[in-house]
Structures are given as C-alpha cells and as structure tokens.
Amino acid sequence: MSQQATIIKKALEQLKIEALNPMQTAALAAFQQPGDLMLLSPTGSGKTLAFLLPVLLQLDPNQTGVQTLILAPTRELALQIETVFREMSTGYKVNCFYGGHDFKTEKNSLQHPPAVLIGTPGRITDHLEKGSLDPVSIRMLVLDEFDKSLEFGFEPEMKYIITRLPNLKKRMLTSATELKEIPSFTGLKQVQKLNYLAEDAVPSGLEVKTVAADGPDKTETLLSLLGVIGNEATIVFCNHREALERISTFLKRYKVTHDLYHGKLEQEERERALIKFRNGSNLILVTTDLAARGLDISQVRHVVHYQLPVNEQSFIHRNGRTARMNAEGTAYLIMSPKETVPPYISSEPEAMELPDTLELPAAPEWTTVYIGAGKKEKVNKVDIVGWLLQKGKLEKSELGMINVGDHISYAAVNSSKVKEMLQLVRAEKLKTKAVKIDIAR
Hints:
Layout: H1 3-15, H2 22-31, E1 37-40, H3 47-58, E2 68-71, H4 75-87, E3 94-97, H5 103-109, E4 116-119, H6 121-129, E5 140-143, H7 146-151, H8 155-163, E6 170-175, E7 192-195, E8 206-212, H9 219-229, E9 234-237, H10 241-253, E10 259-261, H11 267-278, E11 284-287, E12 302-305, H12 312-319, E13 329-335, E14 350-352, E15 366-371, H13 381-390, E16 399-404, E17 409-414, H14 418-425, E18 437-439
Parallel strand pairs: 1-6, 1-7, 2-4, 2-5, 3-4, 5-6, 8-13, 8-14, 9-11, 9-12, 10-11, 12-13
Antiparallel strand pairs: 15-17, 15-18, 16-17
Helix pairs in contact: 2-3, 6-8
C-alpha cells in the first residue's frame, strides 16, 4: 500500500467511513492531475471530504506556516470543516477564524501557524490587512460553497485575499449550483470540471408528498403533520422570517419543542439551535433558506416546505437536508387552496391525508444543558463526561452528544434525569473550578 493510500485509509478509519463515494473518489483522482479543480455537487453529497483528503495529501510535515487556506461563506460551515479535519486525527494543526470570534485569540494562535487555516472571507481579510497572517507559505486555496460566497457579497474580500497569495500552486472551487463562468479573480487555470449536479429536482431517495391546508394560514396543518411525523428530525422551511415567528408562537401554544434558525439571530443563538437539533434535544428546526446549505446536519428524515420555495434551486437545496448520501427522505409541500405544484416537479406527488384527530409530537428524549466552561478553561469532553457521570450520577446511556466551545460547552442528557443531575452537580467543581450549569434555552 502506498503512503498516500495509507494516509487516506487512516483518515477514513478515524471518521468511521468504510469507503468513498464516486464523487469523492473522482475528486481525489482529479486533484492528482495538473491544473486546478472545480467540483459541482449537490448539498449533502460529501464535498467537505472531497477536498479535505486532497488537502491532507499535499501537506508537508516539514514545512512551517499556513500551507492551505479554506474559505467558507458562513461561520457554521467553517466550523463544520474544522470539525471534520480534527476528527481525521492527522496530527496537523488546524484553526478556524470567523467574525464574532475573539480576534486576539486568533492572532495569538498564528504565532504558531496551523498547517490548515479555515475562515470566512471577511475575517481572513481582517488578518491580512492587519498583518497578523503571513500568506507567503500558502500553497493551496479552497473556495468552498463559492456560489454562496458570491451570493453573500464576498467577491471583494475573496478578490483581495487571492491577490495576497503569491505562491499558490493549486486551487479548488466547490459549488452546489452551476456557474455560468468562473470569475477571473479566482485565478483558476487548466481547470478540470467535475459536475455531479443532477438535472432532476427530486433525487431517487426522496419521496415528495403534498399536504392540503384548508386556507392561507397553514399553521394548524403543520401541527397535524408534525404529529404524524412523530419523534423524528424535521426541518420546516419558510421564505420569510415573519412566518417563522408566527409558526413559533403557534407551536409554543401547544408546547411543541422546536427552535428557530435565521440570519437575524445572534450567532450564539444560531449555534445553540443547531447543537440542540444535532443532539436530539430538539427535533424540529423552523428556518429560512439559510439552513438549506453549508450545514452538517445528518439523519434528517423529513423536510417540510411550509412556504413553497421561490425557485427550483431553492427546492433542491432545501431537499438536500434529507435523502443525503443515498439515504431516503420525504419532502412535504403544504399547499393552500390557491397554490399549485411547481412545474419543475415532473411527477405528480402523492397527496397525503392527515388524520381528523390531532396528535402532538412527543417531547424529545434528550435535554441540552449549558456548561460555563470550554477549551480556554482547559476543559474537554473527557472532563465533562467524568464530571456528569461521577458527580451527576448518570449512566453512560443517559449522556448524549457533547460539544465543547471556547468558553461554553453543551451536553445532551436524558430528559428524565436532567433535573436530578443538575441538583447533584451544581455544588460540584469541574477541574477544581466552580462552573455554571443549567438547561440551555
């Protein structure tokens, strides 16, 4: 087995992935060829690994300074990429820079530069302008979700960053939509194009159903549908934030556990909503199209189009949250009497009949607790597990996913045990320090 094959095998074992999918295999092979690479592939197809493996293969353990720069349009996507790279256990240092993160902490981390730097265009621009990031050593650039970065207005920042990278040897661009042309500022040359964008708006693993609402207000229909779906992860998409607020007010009236996700929320609120959704303490995420792309949300079985998507691309990206990686999923179109099925859905969807009797969704099995300590307080997952099992008297099966941030951590705890656990640990110190712990709202 070659050295490269050994490196890939080890990375996949760390990620608990048995084999690459065809798109990832093709990207890995194409990267070995001369020239730059453009990868067009749908949301949820595994693009992150498709570029991280080539990145890993070109890293030099004897080189100092940042070797690879990965630009992502959102903080959530940047953090997701960092998480995947860390889970590969490569031995290389990686950092993630983004707006809202402490700039001084980022600057200090550059005193011992990472081999891989992931960041949003705005924050990387800040570091270049202030001289804290030396770009001379950067040999590879990845523009992830490039179309989304353009949509968010990051062209000036990306253009500036690329002009400051004098020694680039390889460039890779990923996109979930077809590009009419590659902007010249990217500097891509001898471009190999891999296009895995399916023409069909409805992939093979996705079942589409329509649900008829009695009138223009669809909230009661949504509630009934959520009751039928039951205790399974569901994302409800709307076009406007006002609709999210209206739905949330309605669901609160029936004590249905859910979270909102949209661009006007504080970054910490958005991050907390995603953590709770991923760890199963909230199974309903009501969101705008902001959550349609660039987020690592696995095992979502149901997507609800509360408001019909504005176009086919929006429909495809929303549905990309489910039926991921050849899995199966269901998309529901809640239709008012005046609405019709969009023309880009070629086959007639099944009409779903809702029961006459309302059954509310069950409360989630898990509850997320907030812990006022994180990496900067030298707290890690092992510390939190030991603390909650020993001092909180939890069994391993009663403790779920744990997320450790810079100064805040979250843990999923069995809902039936959370009250007793909180009483036991509130007076107990975590690594010799008193920390705040409570239910994450």
